[in-house]
């Protein structure tokens, strides 16, 4: 193989410099691009650390969620009976509509979807369900059990239909909402119930994509097999405005999700124009190689690392991951349980306070210098 001519090498060097400059100049915009679309988010200029500025109760509230449930400190309550999860499949207007709202994937329910019993004074109408997950399999849930995080957490959000006619009216009122929380662990086997969501994710990969009509089904299929064993406490929304209006139920038994299904969820975008920005990076890379087309045998120095840089952007800036709030102090609350005897379990111990730190939050402002170092190292 003949070495590339000098002018080709010079062109390669120039193209790499141009691409590097492009990356450095566009990076701050990419990192903060979501701020102009949202009044709150999990990172960046409107991240968790800023919620208190516009939503005082997020910092000042004493009954905030999520929490770390220490099972030995829970108290048995015989009022907490098994739930009834009800949906009338024959109702002609029953619908489930899925969409990417820029912070999570949400499935809106329209029709006769209800939960009852479970220690609730009234029936609660299901408004929607949504998901929380992380970039790591052992750090993706909002609630912890004995200081252990799981892969994903599903929330079924409902409101007291006897007192309020909309979820918006109920959201700020004491015990206006009831949320069922299901923890998921990664498995090698697909969860058939989740296929209803996962198989439609590509159609809503980023915010602004059309909403997807799903086949209306009972939400019981998303819950663990045993729904008679659960924990109960009074808390808040885990997102702004952090209203302390939620009757929380966290099931003791976790569900499962396969690696393949989890990856499809992690491939969602949280930035409106993420795909466009990714394409701009790809075009910059491709433009940088055009000057060497006359010498196909010439290999661009650091070409593989250029792709790595693109992958880094995509993985840590565009993909919708780590959309969870850190655990909050329990304060004067007591966590109840619906069962008498605790099961023996040996969860993996983690530190909720530290482990919920988002990887994305660590990227800025050092990511520019890291990419510069990575790029120069590849050219060496």
TrEMBL record:
Location of region: Disordered: 282-303
Biased composition (Polar residues): 284-303
Pfam families in alphabetical order: Carb_anhydrase
Presence of the UniProt keyword Transmembrane helix in the record: yes
Gene Ontology cellular component terms for the protein in this record: cytoplasm
Keyword Transmembrane helix listed: yes
Record domain Alpha-carbonic anhydrase: where: 38-339
Transmembrane segments: 361-379
Residues annotated as signal peptide: 1-35
Keywords, alphabetical: Membrane, Signal, Transmembrane, Transmembrane helix
GO molecular function, one term: zinc ion binding
SUPFAM superfamilies given in the database record: Carbonic anhydrase (SSF51069)
The protein's name in its UniProt record: Alpha-carbonic anhydrase domain-containing protein
Record organism: Octopus vulgaris
